[in-house]
Amino acid sequence: MSHVAFCKKWNCKLQLSKTFSAMLALHPDKPALWIMAAKWEMEDRLSAESARHIFLRALRFHPQSPKVYQEYFRMELMNAEKQRKEKEEIEKAKMDLSADGYSDSILGGELARVVYKSAIQTIKGAEFHVSLLSIAKMFDFTEDLQKEILNDLQTFHAQDPFTWDFMARQELAVDSLPSSEYISKQTKAQDLARKEERCNAIYETALESVQTESMWSLYVSFCLERYKRKTNCKELKQKRHNLVLGAMRKAHEANMLSEEKYTEWISQLVDLGQNDVAVEIGEAATKRYKESVRMWQTRAEMLMALEREDVTPVIEEAFKHVKTKDSLPLWMLMVEWSEKSNTDVTTETLYKKAIIVPDPAVARVMKERYLEWAYRTQGYKNARKVFNSLHERRPISEEFFRKMILIEKQQEQSKMQNLREYYERALREFGSTSPGLWLDYIREELSHAEGKPQNCGAIHWRAMKMLQGDDVEHFVSKYTLLQTGHL
After folding, report:
1. Cα 245 from chain centre
2. Are 328 and 296 in contact (CB under 8 A)?
3. Cβ neighbours, 10 Å, residue 394
4. What is the pLDDT confidence band of residue 3, given thresholds at 50, 70 and 90?
């Protein structure tokens, strides 16, 4: 690619043509390369014929590539636009057009239409269809083609939610009143309100025939987008607000509201002070999405914010439905809330439950949190007591030992004897896989006031025996830097 850039910079067209040919021969599996070569032929060499030839070859290798079809379609429209401008200039100069051979079909975008027809037969889906329409809209001579694409979209993808979403949003793009007719901001707001009503009507029509969660989600998303748009018109703001709450309520009643939208709905209800309704919807959401950690978390956080008394029962209910391996966020939320709301005795009881969860990943993290909490609330002695009760209870993490080491080092008179104990216990568990642990141990002996530098040789020898493969190389390189004072 650097050679391509070099050739472009110095305008080496012949060399660049050869370079692209060689690259395409070596890498025919890369659609982006075909597109780059075709664009160069079209934009730099001004050869639509060569660009067309490259795109046709590209489609043999990548018949299912949306991007190749999109760029081929764009190229044919660009070529038609270029020829239309050339013809216009010639007509202005009153020159004879007979010898120039401008084809009406090309000028009208007929070749682009052929590409479009081929594309939609090969690649299905409303989104791809709309992408071609968006490209056609960039050219001012494609009104008939745009109408054809739009009609095909409604014919072939009538049951696709994306089609209805696109058609509804098109209403917002309809020309507004001329600026001279905007007598006041109120008039402008009324015009916008009428457009949004038309959008809403299309969505409601769609929901009569396409009753899917995806369709409801697109409708609610549209309502939320409009609600979040700033307006100084109180009536329009209230109208949008009623619409979004109504859409969410209807989707909920149809059992078609997504997790994400439930979360937004609950948040809005709390903001409006409709706390009882928020609690009701939170309960309904967790019934619909029983195994969703996110949904239970949203409900629990809402109850905490409202200072409800049923936080603990709700989270305990969540543990019955959520998979154990996914439950960590709920345990974290529960202990954080307990630390703020309950006594230390209650919180410690909760931590003791969390550290025996059958999932190793959850248990490891909760042991780390338990140690931190013990030190933060009850000091060094209690932290050491917790450490001593847990350091041999697997599963356990390297981070658990590192936290205890850090706690020791934070004491006014940290004891090297204790640090050695923590390092030795950590190395029994992780000495074969953690070169960093060995290096930190050596560094501690070198830097601590009670350290014994003469122990470093023995620690190094033990590390070399226990570590394997790349870990040995990593340890040796870092140890060398440590010896030379660069680490």
Report:
1. 26
2. no
3. 10
4. very low
Amino acid symbol at 88: E
What span, in angstroms and rounded, lies between the C-alpha atoms of 188 and 185? Answer: 5
pLDDT digits (tens, 9 = 90+) for 130-161: 999 999 999 999 999 999 999 999 999 999 99
Please determine, for residue 172, whether its predicted confidence score (pLDDT) is greater than 50.
Answer: yes
| Three-state DSSP class for residue 487 | coil
Q: Span 115-130, mean pLDDT?
A: 96
The structure tokens listed for 150 are 């739009």
What residues contact 150, with CB distance under 8 A and at least 6 apart?
Answer: 133
Task: Quickly state the pLDDT bin for 2 (edges 50, 70, 90).
Answer: low
Residue 383: count other Cβ atoms within 10 Å of its Cβ: 22
Largest Cα–Cα distance in the chain?
Answer: 101
Can you read off the two tokens belonging to residue 163?
């089609």
- Average pLDDT over all residues of the chain: 91
**pLDDT at position 386 over 80:** yes
Instruction: Identify the pLDDT of residue 16.
Output: 65
Query: What's the CA gap between 448 and 325, in Å, rounded?
Result: 40
Q: Label residue 283 by pLDDT band (50, 70, 90).
A: very high
Q: Which of 75, 72, 117, 81 minimizes the C-alpha distance to 102?
A: 81
d(CA 383, CA 406): 12
What is the C-alpha to C-alpha distance for residues 137 and 146, in angstroms, rounded to an integer? 7
Interhelix angle 234-253/213-228, nearest 10 degrees:
160
Amino acid at 85: K
From CA 114, how far away is CA 152, in angstroms rounded?
14
C-beta neighbour count of 375 within 10 angstroms = 21
CA distance 451 to 432: 24
Question: Is residue 389's pLDDT more than 80?
Answer: yes
CA atoms within 13 A on the CB side of 203: 26
ω before 395 within 30° of 0 (cis)? yes
- Decide: 331 and 367 in contact? Cβ < 8 Å: no
Number of Cβ atoms within 10 Å of the Cβ of 61: 14
